[in-house]
Design brief:
There is one protein chain. By secondary structure, the chain is α+β, with helices and mostly antiparallel strands. The chain folds into 2 domains: 195 residues, Periplasmic binding protein-like II (D-Maltodextrin-Binding Protein, domain 2); 96 residues, D-Maltodextrin-Binding Protein, domain 2 (3-Layer(aba) Sandwich). 35% of the residues lie in helices and 25% in strands. It has 10 helices and 19 strands. Strands 13-12-14-11-15 form a 5-stranded mixed β-sheet, with helices on both faces. β4 and β5 form a beta hairpin. The longest helix is centred in the C-terminal third of the chain and has 17 residues.
Length: 298
């Protein structure tokens, strides 16, 4: 685990909090801020392999789009709690454990590429969206597949703990496609199935597929299909029904959108070059009108 310090003198951004009056917060929600203040520490969960949302740089430091958003949240929280110093305990999590750590309070914030879905809302609360993504499919160029309909009757791998499996199920139900799905434990395993020809497609959030593709030495042998299987909101997660944290996080995001800082973060991670495996790669993804509208909604 990584541990960082943030000093009150380093808080360079002032954020407007959304008002919250008279909410009868559950006991555990009321205790979150108290726990953080009494310990002088906040635990931030993230994944090491979810670039550009959260991953490690060459020094094994957690970086990414979601990490930067959460840094602003933590800065505002330290100011809100009147803490001169607030230790940040960075907790790397396996993809199949992220929701467990949020649900049981082992982490106070989850800052990675986690999709806000109905199933996950049964376990945690989510902020307003910080990104809009969707499930895409990677294929091998030599297989000659250029559209989703060509995967009819073929095998598609996906990461077991991700939302791609549900998106594939919907695709089957709404299009009558005879997709055969093959779950894998993690991103490397899912890609290996495609690389070896055991499956003809690999489904994952499209941005994460693009990042994984950019890291390959033989990236020119693969491509992303133009269609999306779904549209999903990427958000910051925290303990369920925590109205204090909800107000704080949503307030920070709203202020960042109004000030232009959210747009600057987006362009930093999705338009300009970013560090990846000792190289710098640019995704070249401009902010969509849908994301701008979602960020601007208060």
């Amino acid at each position: 685990m990584e541990e960082k310090m943030i000093s009150k003198s380093q808080l360079t951004m002032t954020f407007v909090l959304l008002a919250w009056f008279g909410f009868p917060a559950p006991a555990h929600a009321q205790a979150t801020f108290e726990k953080i203040k009494s310990r002088g520490q906040i635990s931030v969960g993230y994944r090491e392999d979810a670039a550009p949302f959260s991953y490690h740089d060459d020094q094994k430091k957690a970086i990414g789009y979601s990490i930067d958003f959460c840094a602003a949240v933590v800065a505002q929280l330290a100011s809100r709690l009147d803490l001169k110093t607030l230790r940040i305990n960075m907790v790397p999590l396996a993809i199949d454990r992220v929701m467990t750590f949020v649900r049981d309070g082992s982490v106070d914030l989850l800052c990675t590429g986690t999709s806000d879905s109905p199933d996950r809302r049964a376990q945690a609360s989510f902020s307003k969206p910080i990104y809009l993504d969707g499930v895409g499919v990677m294929v091998r160029k030599k297989d000659g597949i250029t559209s989703l309909k060509q995967l009819d009757g073929k095998h598609v791998s996906f990461i077991k703990a991700s939302t791609a499996g549900a998106a594939l199920d919907v695709q089957r139900a709404t299009t009558a496609m005879s997709l055969k799905t093959d779950p894998a434990l993690n991103a490397d395993a899912a890609f290996s199935q495609l690389q070896l020809g055991w499956v003809q497609g690999y489904a994952r959030d499209k941005v994460l597929l693009a990042m994984q593709l950019a890291s390959l030495t033989d990236a020119d042998q693969y491509m992303l299909l133009p269609e999306r299987l779904s549209t999903e909101a990427i958000a910051i997660a925290f303990r369920r029904d925590d109205v204090q944290m909800q107000a704080l996080v949503d307030g920070v995001i709203a202020e960042m959108a109004a000030s232009g800082k959210a747009k600057a973060l987006h362009d930093k991670w999705f338009v300009g070059p970013i560090p990846l495996y000792k190289q710098r790669k640019a995704l070249g993804l401009p902010m969509s009108p849908e994301l701008k509208a979602a960020l601007d909604t208060r």
